[in-house]
Amino acid sequence: MFGKRFGIGTRLSVLVCALVILSTGAVDIATYHQISSVLVKHELKELSLEARVAGVWLNGDIGTLRNDVLSLAGTPPIQGVIRAREHDGIDPVDGSSVDLWQSRLAVIFTQVMQVKPHYSQIRYIGQTDAGREIVRVERFGETIRTVPEAALPQKGRRGYFQDALSGMPGSVSLSEIALNRERGRIAEPHTPVLRAAVAVHDSVGEPFGIVIINMDMRSLFKTLRREVAKGHSLYITNERGDFLVHPDPAKTFRFEWGQQFRLQDFFPSIHSTFAPGTEHRETLIPPVQKLACNTLTSVGHRADGKRFVESGMAACLVKPARQS
């Protein structure tokens, strides 16, 4: 009937119009997918840059911490205390008593903490008497105080003490970032700390003790969260993938209570990033189909050749729902 009512010219015109409409639709779909691909790549690039910036902040503060503990280990009171203790409490070089050398060291520790508000403790710990602290200066609220000798605890069983004491001369040992503990219990308020320690040796090269700085990580974490672009979320993990920073604070530091809550459990494709011996690497993960709006950039940063932290960004890349 169509053929009888319309001539060949009309039918050709309708066919051409249909082909134009179909080709236009195909171009629109191709253009849409191309634009979407460009936007996704741009978002991933932006996330990667933000993650790298977070890594620079982390490594910068860690580098400063390493330099500070090395500098403190080289100050005159460190060896003065050793000489005085080896000679019945009196330094044969200048006649200073061990108490005088320790008070001088406490002044130096205090001065450093005055200009480094994110340092919560600086200590000189001896190997004798089960790792008894010799000098301890700590931040207590808004004040900085020197802990009396009678209140100095033993730290010989702590992992960070053993790690530092067994290290090569001049090498800095970094602890994992963990919640601060006092006398075996997690201190209140919960304070994430990173410890940098270096061994000190006596006149014949035998290990005498360590100098150690505790850095309160709350200020740095707060700065990093503040610098994240609107709509992005910041994740920072330790070398195992445990969350140190997460949009939901309740998911951080769960390993302190024997619980496992790790980044790779939610993003299995980056599991190899946390394998033993993994070097610095960057991993881009495409939008997670199940969530439809999540992508992640993960950048590893080794701090001392043994430990590293992961900083990552997640953003919502909205995926249009299919029309029925």
Structural notes for this entry:
Strand 10 and strand 11 form a beta hairpin. The strands form three sheets. Strands 1, 2, 3, 4, 5, 8 and 9 form a seven-stranded antiparallel beta sheet that branches. A five-stranded antiparallel beta sheet has the order 11-10-14-13-12, with helices on one face. A two-stranded antiparallel ribbon has the order 6-7. Helix 3 packs antiparallel against helix 4 (98-115). With 324 residues, it is of the alpha+beta class. The two termini are 33 Å apart. Helix content is 38%, strand content 24%. The longest helix has 66 residues, at 8-73.
- Evaluate the radius of gyration: 30 Å
Q: Ranges with pLDDT <50 over ≥5 residues?
A: 288-296, 313-324
Mean pLDDT: 79
> What is the CA-CA span between the terminal residues?
33 Å
Strand content: 15-25%
Structural class, from helix and strand content?
alpha+beta
Overall spatial form: elongated
Kindly state the number of beta strands: 14
Number of helices: 8
Helices and strands, in N-to-C order? Answer: HHHHEHEEHEEEEEEHEEHEEE
Percentage of residues in helical conformation: 25-40%
Q: How is the biggest beta sheet arranged? A: 7 strands, antiparallel
